[in-house]
Amino acid sequence: MTLDRHALGFGSGDRAIFASDPWNSRGRLYPETSSATRSDFQRDRDRIVHTTAFRRLKHKTQVFIAADGDHYRTRLTHTIEVAQIARALARALKLDEDLAEGVALVHDFGHTPFGHTGEDALHEMLKPYGGFDHNAQSLRIVTKLERRYAEFDGLNLTWESLEGLVKHNGPLMGKGGQGAHGPVPQPILDYCALHDLEIGSFASLEAQVAAIADDIAYNTHDIDDGLRSGYLTFDMLEEIPFLAGLMREVRDRYPNLESGRFTHEIMRRQITAMVEDVITVAQTRLKQVRPESVVDVRQAGQAIATFSDQMFVTDRDIKAMLMKRIYRHPDVMRVREGAASIVVDLYRAFMSDPLQMQKHYWIDQIAGMAEPAKARHVGDYLAGMTDTYAIATHRRLFDHTPELR
């Protein structure tokens, strides 16, 4: 008996002609038989959720170290919020929601412990060997480091999911073969030699909405967490006309509202305004570009799902405020210094004695490797650590571990 995909709701339905078609994927590096009950993009999304890398996100820093409080965002809760916004945008634009959600769920897999602090420290250590880039590390995880399947390393995701992961922030390669934003990380070039992800073009609209959803999510929840921490105040938010207008609207409608509810009312309005701005811009650009396929989206020469000029200024101003008031706050910088020293100490310890990397897949072979290969394996191991595991490992190996709070 053959299943009827259309009866199961798997037809094209209301999906736009420029959306990615889950039943006509460009395939996987290792061919697999398609599922009768799930599209290839659904399977990708499901594989992502069931990974070790996804579970580790719950103990990785977003902005505030987990010890600061249970209610601050972690990398996992941030990822879930990004996926929710990406799915909402995809539905409004009649895209494939599963692909947009999958790209959102996987986009931060490559982050080190302690957020961007850990990434900066690890990049500095790995500079002689090509450096470290969290986006390239995400690709390594889903194509090489996850070891779950009998027939291949990684998750064997579809071309579209991998393209979205690598290119969600735009083309990596400019004209003349030069990197569009600096040198293209070697892990991405290595993978493209096997499975060309066409890094000189834009990604699908599903990947584009995942990327802008990331900006919307962290702009909003970093303000929320900043208010919770006390590093931000409502008076500081008044410096941003957009936020000042939202606060005025809430005060006018709900006088004397308690601060917790007041904060939430601001945040929900901020997300709504930014989402609706992106939808409006995307609809306008789609009318201008008139793409008749996802290929036309990739060749449009511009991002389609993005902010308007006015919202772009707001986005820039919010990021500047967050940088000044939170990310560069003396207390945060002190914690960042301690976190960076943990990463550096662990890197040096593992390079000196690779056997200290307990349960590493290559533990029996790594000591005899050439220096560049050994360094990359140490980078993989360190990047995969959670905050809690990195701290515990440092305490096991060193007499003194910085207090990160």
UniProtKB/TrEMBL annotation:
The keyword Hydrolase applies. Residues 75-219 form the HD domain. It holds the Pfam family HD. It comes from the Bacteria. InterPro entries: dGTPase (IPR006261), Diverse_Catalytic_Enzymes (IPR051094), dNTPase_2 (IPR023023), HD/PDEase_dom (IPR003607), HD_domain (IPR006674), PHydrolase_assoc_dom (IPR026875). CDD domains: HDc. The keyword Oxidoreductase does not apply. NCBIfam families: dGTP_triPase, PRK01286.1-1, PRK01286.1-3. Belongs to the dGTPase family. Type 2 subfamily. This is Deoxyguanosinetriphosphate triphosphohydrolase-like protein. It comes from Pararhizobium antarcticum.
